[in-house]
TrEMBL record, chains A, B:
UniProt keyword Cytoplasm present: yes
Main localization of the protein described in the UniProt heading: cytoplasm
All copies of domain PhoU, residue ranges: 18-101, 122-204
Pfam family, one: PhoU
Domain of life of the organism encoding this protein: Bacteria
InterPro entries: PhoU, PhoU-like_sf, PhoU_dom
Gene name of this polypeptide: phoU
Name assigned to this protein: Phosphate-specific transport system accessory protein PhoU
Length: 234, 234
């Protein structure tokens, strides 16, 4: 029975890694679509997002089935419950990649953001891709040093997010209202993508260290924040 | 054993209703703080958000404990797992109320949005409050007609969200970039608040009707959308 359970946990893990791989492809394509104004790539991201949703839903069914059949307790139960939460966050990361792609498609053949902001978004996109890959590796190897590196990369994304707002709210900004709206939302999508990855990394870390008290998303949103321009609280 | 389980389910339900009541207070105060530029109320929302987070975390612990002790299966298990998801969404609704309050505090003593947008935001805020109350009632009474009414109210919020963007992107908009940023984020917070409520309502509905296939968040974000101004996809 125990062996069967371990096999099933391993199946859950494989599926999380598989979903993470799909999220990597989505964010890579979305970032390229956004940066290069590539509408075909954007369409691809939008078209394949339901696949990620289906995979997450199917993993949830498996997790619930495992709980029902195996009645795990203690740490085993927490691992399966965490898988449910991790799949929800991965699914949301896929949605955010899709939102970035939707912006690229909507503005095609124009760029979503003006030239002055493109280096910042390119950097933010590169960090998001890096974070998605670290997350996949963390789910695959449980190497907790990746969780710490991932948090560092997220701090970098937060800084870039603030940079976007400093620029938009600065005296040299000449963007039309629609450009300001797009830059605001695009920056937020990039930042939330990284946030979800950090939330997942924390769950993996807490499962490994046994400190359950940290296993909730709320805290990540409650951290004291540096002073930011208004509206950059999330 | 069965009676104990039913008692525990009833405790879970009571706690969800309790958290929903706190969310109602938060969104009511946040909407008033936002509309009246009331910094004391904004501070209150910001200060009490950790209470909602703690209540959600504590409910999660209870739910996991129930699964471990009672080994529920089939519908019973799905009810407890859904409680985990519902608490996460309620917690997030509290965060969004907090984000609205943060905007109000940041711009105090000024209004966050110009006079031309205030009626739209007042209406959106009123709908969010109404939605939070319907959600609380739904969790308390399981009256599924509330789920349908809630979805109708959410459609109204979506329309108001589009109205905000039509206005911001229209020819008469003279807001500075920071006002455009604030209006964009504020509108999104109001809209996401309602989205989370709809997600919860769907879970309650699916639990009651036994149609598990609909019990995932992904779908709500995949619905075909009316043509919107760019950047209003989420």
């Amino acid at each position: 029975m125990r062996d069967v359970f371990q096999q099933e946990l391993s199946e859950v893990q494989d599926r999380l890694v598989d979903i993470a791989n799909h999220v990597i492809v989505s964010i890579e394509s979305a970032v390229r679509a956004f940066g290069d104004s590539n509408v075909q790539l954007a369409e691809q991201v939008i078209a394949t997002d339901p696949l990620i949703d289906d995979k997450a839903a199917s993993l949830d069914e498996l997790a619930i089935d495992i709980i029902a059949r195996q009645s795990p307790v203690a740490r085993d139960l927490r691992i399966v419950v965490s898988a449910l939460r991790i799949s929800a966050s991965l699914e949301r990361m896929g949605d955010l990649a899709r939102h970035i792609a939707l912006l690229a498609r909507y503005r095609f053949p124009m760029q979503v953001v003006p030239e002055s902001l493109q280096p910042t978004f390119a950097e933010m996109g590169a960090r998001d891709i890096e974070i998605a890959k670290m997350l996949r590796d963390l789910l695959e190897t449980q190497d907790l040093s990746l969780a710490d590196r991932l948090e560092t990369a997220d701090n970098h994304v937060d800084q870039l997010h603030r940079d976007v707002f400093s620029h938009v709210l600065g005296t040299t900004w000449e963007g039309a209202a629609h450009t300001t709206v797009d830059a605001t939302l695009a920056s937020r999508y990039h930042e939330r993508f990284a946030d979800h990855a950090v939330g997942i990394a924390k769950k993996v870390k807490y499962l490994a260290t046994g400190d359950w008290t940290g296993d909730d998303d709320a805290r990540s949103d409650m951290a004291p924040e540096p002073v930011r321009p208004a509206g950059v609280q999330d």
